[in-house]
Amino acid sequence: NFTVPASGGTLTAGTNATTFVATSGTQTITTNGRTLDFPVTVNNSATTQLAGALTLGSTRTFTLTAGTFDLNNFTLTAQIFSSNNSNTRSLTFGTTGQIAVSGNNATVVDFTTATNFTFTGTAYINSTYTGATGTRTFTFGSTAGATAANTFSVATSGTSGIVVGTSATDTFALTGSFNNINLTGITNTLSNTATSLYGNLTVPASGGTLTAGTTAMSFIATSGTQTITTNGRTLDFPVTVNNSATTQLAGALTLGSTRTFTLTAGTF
What we know:
Shape: elongated
Distance between the termini: 53 Å
Oligomer: single chain
Structural class: mainly beta
Low-confidence stretches: none
Strand content: over 45%
Radius of gyration: 19 Å
Number of strands: 29
Order of helices and strands: EEEEEEEEEEEEEEEEEEEEEEEEEEEEE
């Protein structure tokens, strides 16, 4: 276990990580409200559990390499959350646990390879940046490993899934695969990147910017019905249906004048 007092002494800031490497049982992190201004890594074959909120310094990364990280209904705050590998690993959110990422102009949530990742509880990853600089990238399974069961939903507000916020005026990118994407309330710019959905797409009639581009948004559900709701807004990028399910319109779907709709597999 790792325990620090609420005050007293100095915990030197730096770029060297503290790594949790237990081979069995449960390791506990107790910070008593103190900020750890260095990276933290979980790389074990056990469970690492919070005994209270864990706050890293504003430039520090939390990395889940292997093992189970149990938020235990507390909040982890870091600049970046990274779990880009194919080791067996999992997140336990509970009912109120959350990961708050404060970074900007970087890949702030990195599951480029999501192979062998799972989570339990109500997933909540809250991107708290409120400025205008750069691009926040959220990447899940763009290389490998995304499934209908392990992907996150994305919304501009709420208390579940990846929440990108309604105060920032920067750009954000959704790269890889996600469940539902709901852009209601968007205030900033969604980049045109390779995005695949296992769930529904909802965009508001106005607000923010949906970047035009040549990269397709793909609907890839493995069962059930996916719904596209555009509220009369034009999507100025290609759209592809390539699933083993049904993709259904909730209203007219209008693509940009140079964009292609492709039905590869499934029912549209």
